[in-house]
Specification:
Helix content: 10-25%
Strand content: 25-35%
Order of helices and strands: HHHEEEEEEH
Number of helices: 4
Distance between the termini: 21 Å
Largest sheet: 6 strands, antiparallel
Strand order of the largest sheet: 3-2-1-4-5-6
Shape: globular
Number of strands: 6
Length: about 130
């Protein structure tokens, strides 16, 4: 998937540390998200999120989506060894970004992750939906 960087994106990326900015050549979408989250503060202690999404390798659809403690979408990774990027969005904010096994952003802070409420029938429906 191609992600064209705008002049504005390039100016913002140039403000990042050089080793992180250099990743924009290979991972432009992820680095634009890093720019967006760079100055964010970690979530406070005991923060209970309403919405969590996880994206693997900048996919168009989340690999995992949890809404108010319920698993609503899940796409299993084909191979954990081949994952290049992981991005976690919590309540609309990029909370965690990892590129090539290197943590670039970790604003998870005091988030209390829910015990995901699902049952086998719901899980099968999620896994088999088209």
């Amino acid at each position: 998937m191609s992600y064209p960087l705008t002049d504005y994106d390039k100016k913002q990326i140039a403000k990042l540390p050089a080793d992180i900015a250099a990743l924009a050549q290979k991972y432009p979408c992820e680095i634009v998200n890093v720019v967006e989250a760079w100055d964010d503060k970690p979530f406070p202690s005991d923060y209970i999120p309403q919405y969590i999404e996880t994206y693997i390798d900048a996919g168009d659809e989340p690999s995992l989506r949890v809404l108010e403690g319920s698993l609503t979408d899940y796409i299993p990774a084909k191979s954990l060894d081949d994952i290049k990027t992981i991005q976690v969005i919590i309540d609309g904010k990029f909370a965690y970004i990892e590129i090539e096994s290197r943590v670039i952003i970790d604003h998870i802070g005091g988030v209390v992750f829910p015990a995901i409420a699902t049952n086998p029938v719901e899980l099968m429906q999620i896994l088999t939906k088209e």
